[in-house]
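[User] I have long wanted to understand how a fold can be written as tokens. Those tokens are not coordinates but codes from a learned vocabulary of shapes. Could you go through the record with me and say what the backbone is doing? Thank you; the sequence and its tokens follow:
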Amino acid sequence: MRKKQSTNYVNEQFLFQVCELNSAIAMINGRWKSQIVYSISQGNNRFHLIQQELPNISETVLARQLKELETHAILIKKEIPNTVPVGIEYVLTNKGLDLVPILESLCDWGKLYADGKRISAHSIS
């Protein structure tokens, strides 16, 4: 968390006011958040299932990223009835479900242009 008097905080707030894209990117910013959202959309809705799908993420980081996604109302945590101990599943909200095709489009865009792939002058319009 940045200090409210810091230049970085002031600049961030300015950018959020200028364009909603900056706010949207801030919500999903993080190494694992997009993968977590996509994993949940594919049915991996329990902590251990997400961790199996993303084996390189630590429990601490996964828990923090899930909490941040919950704070931004991209997902909710639901108790699974009649489980001992109480089971938890993660469910995408409408906001989270609307995000999935956007992430898929960004993935497609990345397949074309990421990692130093050349962009020809003809492909720029």
